[in-house]
What does this fold into?
Amino acid sequence: MIEEFINYGMQIANGMDFLDKEEIVLRTLTSRSIYIGYNKECKVTDLGLSTAVMSLAEFELVTRGRLPVRWMALESLLDCFYTTKSDTWSFGIVLWEIFSFGCVPYAGLSPNELTHQLQSGYRIPKPLHCDKHM
It folds into this structure.
């Protein structure tokens, strides 16, 4: 089963790499935006909030709607800044979801509590069955 989870992670990483090469910042990568199709092929979907950054290293969101705060990097939460690095943070949370068998990241924390905890250096602990190298 772990090998299958690693395979999912690799496929998602390849999809994110493709988007990066196309200069697209996804902004909303969550496990619910990954579809698993025939032959267990993972597809990154839900590109509704993505944006082509056209060689810009980062961009700023000027309006706030409903956003998936549990998957967002601290700079996105605090300053509405999105980069491929903030997408990488979201990818890490998606991996955590996969390896925790679908648990909710940062369960029990409100958006304000989550932001405060992240500012204080808190990071989500690794899933119980994952070894240190995972």
